[in-house]
Structure formats: structure tokens, C-alpha cells
Design brief:
- By secondary structure, this protein is an alpha/beta fold.
- Helix content is about 55%, strand content about 10%.
- The strands form three sheets. The chain has a seven-stranded mixed beta sheet, with helices on both faces.
- β1 and β2 form a beta hairpin.
- It starts with a helix and ends with a helix.
Length: about 475
């Protein structure tokens, strides 16, 4: 997949030249377009190479080829039984549907699908793809600004470049909306809307968790990713075993899964990320965790105690902070709360260090470590975060959800009920589904008091408003949900 995409650069150069030849009328404009073409090809090649060699959340210190671990995912339209398998480039789908919005939960493979389509478009020479990382849209930054910086365009070349984009059948892949700061989402959604309207000939493929901000994207067809079948999950485990040369562990996990049929484990296997993390957790402890919270803790423990795969020395990476495993977990819980307070999953290194200082001054005042050392440990020794230039982000938002749920149930000193209510009854409760599931599992009494009873009371009030039944009947209803 990746090699074909990189090898497609000569085709891309010819395609760019053919598409724009009619607009080049002078020697000067021809020179300009040649420079623009070179910039586009240079960046596209870099992106193709990056997408075909990946590090996963489960094994963040190891790289592998995407071909070795990719299980073809399937897009399905809402309330429709048929699906589109994303293995080859989905020509039939993108010919019929030029505006797609893929909405699904954390870990279902939205970013992976975007990257596979990008690589297939090049490798099969079917479309000219432009990948846009929406996390770069902050403040007054426009999509045009991101593209100009992405392709390293000279100012004098921008006009011709954007004229080309707005008049040609480009395939735009917009990924990462759910990782944008909450305060920026309305602004970014509007920018996407305007950009789509200005590029009438283009095809758009946008991915996100469930969000309310796309309510006016009525011209987009909405798709989700079909949950993995058990056979697909098992094949993914086999692929991970082969890719990381630990086939014996993959075989042992599959034998364990065949022997046990716990519904909770089956739900993990529907999600590609959770399946890979289940493999990592089992590789560490040879136990299949049933509860989601235990599952994430086992993943944390695996990363904390991590040694290089296939090394017989069992060398464990040194922690510069010197923090014990439980103390490191406590620091990450506090960091998660600060990310939540800022409503982001990514910050600059300076802000990350500022948050680290705040942790030692407040929640973890009994601990001492240098902010720079925490940056090192969080991105290298215990790689739950990833560096991206000057930015640091959670390697996956589901990990932020886990540590945030742990902070609420174990460390939060104010009203836990009110804090949970605020999340559960906000307009973004669908996007927080993983967090709410974790809290429900960890502290069912808290969840009942903060969410179940208020939700039941609300439903009852609506019921009573529509049907004025006898008071005795209403009293029975109230007693059943714990309100009487």
C-alpha cells in the first residue's frame, strides 16, 4: 500500500500538469506552477511515507507497516444494511457520494480509514488526495493557512495554488475534528462548511466522533464504521502477533478468547483499538480483563513496565521523574483533569510543563519532579502521549477518558455528583460516552445518583405531563426509580 503510494509520485506530477495546463498562459506562470507542483509532490510523498510506517497506541515504541496490521474496515450508512469495504480505493462510493461524514466512537478506526484512502488514492492512481489535520486549526488560522504551511508554499504561489484547488476534482480528507479544543469547534465547523461551499468540484471525506457541530451539514451523507466481527478481531490479533514477532502470545490470547465467552470481552473485540489494547494487556499479564477500567489499568501497567519487544534482557526504560507506578498513575489522573478543564487533548510543550508544575503545587503536592522529566516519561518511557512538533497530545482520547474517570472517582474533592451531572446532561454527552461508561463501571452508585435517577425523574415528569394518571399510580412509578 505505502510503496505503491510513494511510487505514484511521477503519475501525480503528470496529473497535476495535465489538469492545470490550460490555465498556464505565460512562461512566468509555467515556472510558478512547476514550483507549486514540486511543493505538492514533496509534501504528499512525505505524508505517504509517514502513513505507511506507523506506530500504534498499543505498541507506541515500535513501528510497523500499515499493511501488516490493517483489517479492511467497512463503512455503513445510517440505518442501511449494506456496507462499503475500504480495502481498495472506494471508487464506487466516492463517485456516487462526494460529501461523506464518518461519525463513530473512539477507536473504531476513523483516522485509519482516512489514511488508507489517502494511500489507495495514490497507489491506484484514482484521485489527487489532500489530507488536512484539523487539529492545526486554532484561533484565527484558516484552512487555507494550514494548507499553505503544510505544502510550504511561497506567498507569491498561493493564489495560483488555491485557484487550482477550487477548480479541480480534489479529494479532501479532513481528520481529527474530535481532538480540537471545545472552544474552537464551532469556529472550525463553520470554516469547513465555508471551504466545502467554495470547492464545488471537490470530494470531501470528514471524520469525527458524534458531535452536534455538524447539524447543518445536511448535504453530507453520514456513515459509521461497522463493528468488527469476531473473525475479523481474531485476524487482527494474528496480524499484531506477526507484525511484532510475538505470534505465540497472539495464539495464547486467541485460545483464551475461544475458551471464554464473556459479553464484556466480546464488546472489546468489536472495536479495533480496544482489540489491539487487549492484545497488549494480555501480552503483559496473560489475563483477559473483563472490566473496562481494569483493562485500561492493565494497558497502563504494560506501558509502565515496558521493555523492548523481543529483547531477552527484560530491560525496563528508566523513568526520569523517578515516580513509582501508582504515583505516576496519580499524576496522569491530575493531568487528565487539567486537559479536561481546558477542553483539549493536545497542548504545546510549554503548557504541558505549566500543567506539570500545577500538579505538584496542588493535587500531588507530596511529589517532586521536573516538568521536563515528565515530558520525557510521558512521551518515551511510558508513552501515553505523542509528540507532534512543539505539541504534546494523548496518544488516543480514550486514554484521556480513562484517567479522567479515575480522577473523578478517586481524587476529585468537590461534589462528584454535580461534576458528573454537568458532563452527562451537556450537549456533548454522546462524545463523552466512553468516559461515562468508565465511571458507571467504576462507581455505579455515583452514576445512579448523578445520572440514572435524574434522567428517570425527567422522563417521569414528561410522562406525568402527558398522562395525568391517578396519584397512586404516580407514586408507584416514583418508588420504582428510587424517588419516593
Amino acid at each position: 500500500m505505502g510503496k505503491l503510494a510513494v511510487a505514484a509520485m511521477p503519475w501525480m506530477k503528470d496529473a497535476l500538469k495535465a489538469l492545470y495546463t490550460k490555465r498556464v498562459s505565460t512562461k512566468a506562470s509555467e515556472r510558478t506552477w512547476t514550483e507549486v507542483t514540486n511543493a505538492v509532490i514533496r509534501h504528499t510523498k512525505v505524508l505517504a511515507e509517514r502513513f505507511c510506517e506507523i506506530s500504534t497506541v498499543a505498541f507506541p515504541q515500535e513501528t510497523t507497516q500499515i499493511d501488516k496490521i490493517y483489517i479492511p474496515l467497512k463503512l455503513q450508512e445510517r440505518n442501511r444494511p449494506n456496507h462499503h469495504e475500504i480495502d481498495a480505493f472506494p471508487s464506487s462510493l466516492l463517485t456516487k457520494v462526494r460529501k461523506l461524514l464518518v461519525v463513530d466512537a473512539a477507536g473504531m478506526g476513523k483516522s485509519t480509514v482516512s489514511r488508507v484512502i489517502f494511500l489507495r488514492a495514490l497507489g491506484e492512481q484514482k484521485a489527487l488526495p489532500v489530507f488536512v489535520d484539523l487539529r492545526r486549526l486554532t484561533g484565527d488560522t484558516r484552512i487555507d493557512d494550514v494548507l499553505a504551511a503544510q505544502f510550504a508554499l511561497k506567498k507569491k504561489h498561493e493564489e495560483q495554488f488555491f485557484d487550482f484547488l477550487r477548480t479541480q476534482p480534489i479529494l479532501f480528507l479532513f481528520d481529527g475534528f474530535d481532538e480540537i479544543a471545545e472552544s474552537e469547534k464551532i469556529h472550525v465547523a463553520r470554516m469547513i462548511r465555508d471551504f466545502v461551499d467554495q470547492n464545488e468540484k471537490a470530494t470531501f471525506f470528514v471524520t469525527s466522533r458524534p458531535e452536534i457541530y455538524f447539524s447543518n451539514f445536511t448535504d453530507f451523507k453520514k456513515y459509521s464504521i461497522k463493528p468488527l466481527a469476531k473473525s475479523e478481531a481474531h485476524e487482527l490479533i494474528r496480524k499484531y502477533g506477526a507484525a511484532y514477532e510475538i505470534e505465540d502470545r497472539a495464539k495464547s490470547l486467541l485460545e483464551e478468547l475461544r475458551a471464554k465467552h464473556d459479553p464484556a470481552v466480546s464488546s472489546f473485540l468489536e472495536n479495533p483499538l480496544l482489540t489491539s489494547l487487549l492484545f497488549r494487556a494480555f501480552e503483559y499479564k496473560s489475563v483477559v480483563p473483563v472490566k473496562r477500567g481494569v483493562f485500561y489499568r492493565q494497558v497502563f501497567d504494560a506501558l509502565y513496565d515496558a521493555h523492548d519487544l523481543n529483547k531477552e534482557t527484560g530491560f525496563v526504560r528508566t523513568k526520569k521523574t523517578g515516580l513509582h507506578q501508582d504515583d505516576f498513575h496519580r499524576v496522569l489522573r491530575a493531568m487528565a483533569s487539567m486537559f479536561r478543564r481546558r477542553k483539549v487533548s493536545e497542548v504545546t510543550q510549554d503548557i504541558f510543563k505549566e500543567m506539570a508544575r500545577e500538579v505538584t503545587a496542588t493535587v500531588c503536592s507530596d511529589l517532586t519532579f521536573a516538568p521536563d522529566d515528565l515530558v520525557h516519561d510521558c512521551t518515551s518511557s511510558v508513552p501515553l502521549f505523542a509528540r507532534d512538533g512543539n505539541h504534546i497530545r494523548w496518544s488516543h482520547k480514550s486514554l484521556l477518558d480513562y484517567f479522567l474517570s479515575e480522577f473523578l472517582t478517586r481524587d476529585y474533592t468537590e461534589s462528584k455528583i454535580e461534576a458528573l451531572k454537568k458532563v452527562a446532561f451537556s450537549g456533548q454527552s454522546i462524545a463523552d460516552q466512553n468516559f461515562l461508561t468508565l465511571v458507571h463501571e467504576t462507581d455505579p452508585t455515583l452514576f445512579t445518583e448523578a445520572v440514572t435517577i435524574p434522567a428517570g425523574a425527567h422522563c417521569l415528569r414528561r410522562y406525568e405531563g402527558r398522562f395525568q394518571g391517578p396519584r397512586a399510580t404516580q407514586s408507584v412509578h416514583r418508588s420504582r426509580i428510587g424517588l419516593a
